[in-house]
Amino acid sequence: MEKPPVEEEELYSSWALLILTSLIILSLFSSYYLQRKQIRALHETVISIFAGMLVGLIIRMSPGSMIQDMVTFNYTYFFNLLLPPIILNTGYEMKKGNFFKNLGTILTFAFLGTFISALVIGILVGIISAMGIGSMSLSFLDSMIFGSVLSATDPVTVLTIFQSLKVDPKLYSIVFGESILNDVVSIVLYETLKKYRGQDFHFSNITHGIFIFFLNFGTSLIIGVIIGVSCALISFNYYNIFDFISFANIKP
Fold it and tell me: CA 50: distance to chain centroid?
């Protein structure tokens, strides 16, 4: 494929940047307007979703593919750059007492609920693909990978309504805690299933996949706990280290 001229590529990249920036500004403005007018029947995420769908439809129907390639979602950026700060922020603002008090219920919904959701979605997608409905043709493994992606839910709107209505803190902590952990379970499940693409299906693959799932999850959990505890100890014991550094740098 012939590479487009530099001027044309720069023009399309400017349009792509303008579209993304406009969507971000629209999302921020809608959030500010709804909070200012105290409109609770409509959430800003609904406006953002429909705005993204409308802009995506216009780009999809427009001629050419260069601008489509520039605004295409890259999941590696999401997993490595966007998702970790989101999980860190939600974990930092979480009320620890209610979380650990209902830890058993949260883990049940996060692990078992996410797995059942991925399994049901994967089976339904596989059945639809096997029936030849539409132009979709996916293998069972690809259907399960698709189900693992959609299994994690993000109840931002529900939590906002819960907070405004001041519901039972136990219910809020369960939904909030499950929404934090199901992302992790979904990511590990997705990465585990992706390793078996292009391979023949055997029963040993299931047991090996389960082992890899718990190995990846356990290793990530241990690394996170070690780093978190280390940072907490450092900040607790050496909170005034910058005062010592500033004092040492003072010239007589």
Answer: 19
